[in-house]
Amino acid sequence: MEVLQQIWTGSGLYQITGDQLAMLGVCLLMLYLGIVKKFEPLLLVTIGFGGLLSNIPGVEIATGDGLLHLAYVMGIETGAFPLIIFMGVGALTDFGPLLANPKTLFLGAAAQFGIFATLLGALGLTELGIMDFSLREAAAIGIIGGADGPTAIYVAGQLAPHLLGAIAVAAYSYMALVPIIQPPIMKLLTTEAERRIEMVQLREVTKAERIIFPLVLLLLVALLLPSAAPLLGMLCFGNLMRECGVVDRLSDTTQNSLINIVTIFLGLAVGSKLRAEQFLDWSTLSILLLGMVAFAIGTASGLLMGKLLNKLSKTPINPLIGAAGVSAVPMAARVANKVGLEANPQNILLMHAMGPNVAGVIGSAVAAGIMIMVAS
C-alpha cells in the first residue's frame, strides 16, 4: 500500500492544479486549430505540444536542464532562432511585386501604425492605473501589431523575456486568425466599388534589380537604424541567396531543412513558456487584448492608406491590398485576394497584394529596430 500511495502522490493526476488543467485545454485548442483548421500548423502544433509538456506536473523537460528549456536559452534568449527564421523567410520571399510597384511600400509602412498606437495606448493605460507595463514591456507588446511571429519573439526576447510566452501566442494566434479577423474590417472600411477595382498587370522585374535590392535595402536601413540590422540583414541575406543564382544549394537548405529544424525547436521552446503560473494572470489577458487592438489598427491603417493612394495614383489601386501590409506572409495577401474575388470574380489581386505584404515584413523589422533602440 505504501508503494501504491507513493506512486499515486507522485503522479501528475495527484499534483495537477486547476490552472494547469486550464492551460492543457488551451494547448489542446491550439493543436485543434493547427491540425483540424490548419491555422498556421507549423507553429501552432509545435507551440501547443510544447505547452502540453510544460503543464504536466512532474515533467522536467521544460525546466532546469530539460531539452525545451535549453532550446529556449540557446535559441530564443540569444535571439538566434528568430534571426535564422528571418533568413529562411528571405530565401522564400519574392520581392518582385514590391519592386514592380514601389508605391505599395507606403501600404506596408502604414500598416505598422498599429505597433506604435498600441505602444502609446499601453503606456497611457498604465498612467491611468488600468494596466501596469513599463516602456520595454509596452514596446514588446506593440510589435504584435505587425503580425510577424519571429519579429515579436525577437523583440520580446530583447526587451521583456518574462512576457515572451503570452506575446508569442498572441502574435501567432492573430497570424493564424487573419482569415477571420481581417475581412470584417476590410468590408467596413471600403465600398463595394472600391473592392471591385481591377489593377493593371505588374511589369517584369529584371534579375539585376532583384540582386541589387536586398543589398541597397540593408545598407540604407542599417546605416540609418543599426538596431534593425540583425533582423533585416538576415532577411536580405536569405533573399540574396535566392536571387543571385550561384548558391542554389545554400538557398535550398535555408528554404527547407534549416528553417524546418529551427521552426520545430522554436515552437517547442515558446510552448515551454506557457506554464500556468506564468501565463494565467491579468497581464497576459491584457497582452492578448492589446495585441488584437494592434492587429486591427494595423489592418485599418493599411486600408486607409490604400484608399488615399487610389485617389492620388494615376493607375487604379484596390484599397484591399493595403490590408496585406501586415507581415503575415502570404496569408494576408491571400485574404485580400479572396475578398476582392467576392466583389469581382475577374479581380485577381494576389500578386498585387504581395507587394505590401513583403513591405510589411520589412516595415515590421524596421519597427522592431526602433522599439529596441527607444526602449533599451
Tags for this model:
376 residues; mainly alpha; single chain; 21 helices
**What percentage of amino acids are in beta strands?**
under 5%
Order of helices and strands: HHHHHHHHHHHHHHHHHHHHH
Mean pLDDT across the residues is 89
Radius of gyration over all CA atoms, rounded? 21 Å
Tally of DSSP β-strands: 0
Largest sheet geometry: none
Overall 3D form: globular
- Tell me the helix content: over 70%
Low-confidence stretches: none
Going by helix content, strand content and strand pairing, the class is: mainly alpha
Query: What is the count of helical runs?
Result: 21
| Measured distance between first and last alpha carbons | 58 Å
The number of domains: 1
In short:
This protein is mainly alpha-helical and 376 residues long. Helices cover 73% and strands 0% of the residues. The chain is globular and about 85 Å long.
